[in-house]
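Hi R.,

Here's the chain you asked about this morning:
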Amino acid sequence: MLDKDNTLEYNYKILSQERKKQKISQETVSAQLTLSIDQIKSLENNLDNGFITAHFKHLTLKRYAKFLEIDFDKIIPQPVKIIVDDVATETVVKVGIKNTNLLQLLTLKKIKILIVTGLIGLIFIFSLAVKFDIKTPNPEIISSDLNIPQDNHVDADIQALSPLSDNFTQNIKGETISKKKFQEIENISDIGSIEFICSIGSASMDKVWSRLNPERPATYFHIVSLKKQTICTIDNQGVLKQYDLDEGSKITHRGEAPFKIQLDSSISELYFQGWKVYLKDNDNFIQLNPVNMTTEPN
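And the predicted structure, written out as tokens:
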């Protein structure tokens, strides 16, 4: 939720607690969600750096919560509705603030009206019951007439599916995680481009690359995607472009260097000025700096 100064308030401590509980490092989260380490630390400590607006930070929180299997309502509670005299009064319950006493929301006049109205209603109902000798129906007779069974039960054939065994583990980048979490990481690309957050404009670069002896102009770069992913790039003129790539996709992006690129380094091949850029794990934010050519390209 947003407070008056347009900053995001949420239970940020639950993120690092759950991540450590699942024995997942910040580097793994960075690689799977294509976020920088600084952005992960910002989310886990409620810092403002790494995000241009609170809106983008809110969207990134949803992705992080989904990855850790945390109910998003536990991170940002939804507004609570209190019904008073058939009028819904919404009050926002903020984290760390004590619950407001309901009596403080009601004026003394409304309390008196509610009490008097209730007493009048009870007197009216009691008078009708005495006059017409109204009796409470027998619940057993009603149940019998409508052929409703007295005992509610769940069909024995309907059973919950057994969870995947946590005894099976897989080692990824030096971390041992459960089979369930391994399958989620394998299928993390299924989140899709809708949930991809392009934060290239405010993120710090994991890698800055240039070549002393370039063989091609610095007006473009090539990318080969080994798996499905979404990337984005911004050039020196501030032109921002986002690409949804399938497995085996090859693109040539043209613009004015230097280029800043946000991608998944583990499934990408990048080429600039005629040379391959060798990426390491978690090099998700790359800057390609141009070098002037001394001779004409071949």
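The chain has two domains: 1-136+176-192, 198-288.

Let me know if you need anything else.
M.
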